[in-house]
Design brief:
DNA polymerase, domain 1, alpha/beta, Rossmann fold, 8 strands, two-stranded antiparallel sheet
Length: about 220
């Protein structure tokens, strides 16, 4: 039954953090660097995890003021790039799922609020970059999620109609993005949002873990 759902769609768009990759420790380290600079303290993992997926510029501006935004972003990105390749892993079952879908002729793509360049570098370091047709993030000329711009750009590039597109992600922001884009949403509770929390946002489909999609 679960396999039938995903097989109905030929254009599959994934979120990145918490959906395909576990990069929470690297993100925590980057947030720690910013908070140590401005607040003199590190963050708990739960505090840091709650910020994952939120557009970074808006978040840091709100936290530390517009006047400190540029410095905060620079500290975050420098620290993240320093540790991300060592501290990022694929979520269990991800590679098998992607290979299976690619073998079936699906168009696989990524839309993330991480910067596009680091996203593409991470996928390359994890040896799965060749599985994707398009990988878009912030600084690729489009607004971050929940804006539908990245989803719409992928749809335009691949030539599929919206009924043939499904977006897979782990956060309420992803659900809002799919609704804004008018595409089917499949949520997975493999990131830092619980099954019940995601259910309250009414995705079209909801699974405990990404590995369950075709099990």
């Amino acid at each position: 039954m679960t396999a039938d759902i995903i097989n109905k769609y030929n254009c599959i768009i994934f979120d990145l953090d918490g959906t395909l990759i576990d990069s929470f420790q690297a993100i925590n380290d980057a947030f720690d660097a910013v908070f140590l600079r401005f607040n003199g303290r590190a963050l708990s993992d739960s505090e840091s995890n709650s910020y994952v997926g939120v557009p970074l510029e808006d978040l840091l501006s709100e936290m530390f003021g517009k006047e400190n935004q540029a410095e905060a972003i620079e500290i975050f990105r420098n620290k993240y790039r320093e540790v991300c390749f060592e501290k990022t892993t694929l979520i269990k079952g991800t590679k098998e799922l992607l290979i299976d879908l690619k073998d079936k002729g699906k168009s696989l793509n990524v839309a993330t609020n991480k910067t596009g360049d680091i996203s593409r570098d991470l996928l390359k370091s994890l040896n799965i970059d060749k599985l994707f047709d398009y990988v878009y993030g912030v600084f690729d000329g489009m607004k971050g999620k929940p804006s539908p711009e990245m989803i719409n750009k992928i749809i335009e590039n691949t030539g599929f109609e919206k009924p043939d597109v499904i977006f897979i992600g782990d956060s309420p922001i992803d659900i809002m993005t799919a609704k804004n884009a008018g595409v089917t949403m499949l949520s997975v509770a493999s990131g830092n949002h619980t099954y019940s929390e995601l259910r309250s946002f009414n995705p079209d489909f909801l699974y405990e873990h990404i590995a369950n999609i075709t099990s």
